[in-house]
Give the backbone structure.
Amino acid sequence: EAQVTQNPRYLITVTGKKLTVTCSQNMNHEYMSWYRQDPGLGLRQIYYSMNVEVTDKGDVPEGYKVSRKEKRNFPLILESPSPNQTSLYFCASSLSGLARDNEQFFGPGTRLTVL
Amino acid sequence: AQKVTQAQTEISVVEKEDVTLDCVYETRDTTYYLFWYKQPPSGELVFLIRRNSFDEQNEISGRYSWNFQKSTSSFNFTITASQVVDSAVYFCALRGAGNNRKLIWGLGTSLAVNP
């Protein structure tokens, strides 16, 4: 089954404790992206990756890191989480190439609480 | 700048009523893509439809229909004979023609369908 998986689905942690949210897709997609969703602010892009070893900042990258060592994986790293990073996080992937209207597939979301 | 406006924050209807969710967008791109996603209470994002800027044909899928009008920069979504299972937050999103497949999201319309 074609899908984007995220782990963990729920996480409660404390300020300053490094964490990684994993994202994996099995569709051989070149493009992957992370969004955060906050009440009143909607969904905003954190980072994106056009392909392996190619990553770039989105609209709200501060406090986050990403890596793209393999095509299927795009982990989101919070080196020193703070309470303002409490949010619902979504990973997405899609094909790249000339067909620019390719659908983005979303993971199930990770609800993160930083105390 | 690109922007998506969903003026209706919350809508409440009684089952079997028709309901239209409004979406107005702003973009300077001549080629762009519009999307609707559904977010049920469980939190995942469910893709509903994608529409290209060069295709103004309206679309119907079962009880769902979409009205795309470039002249008014609108991409409205109608649910006919609403059902309780339609209760969710609905997001309209816009993507430009650039390499970053970032979606610009509206803030969503929360639809409550009451029995």
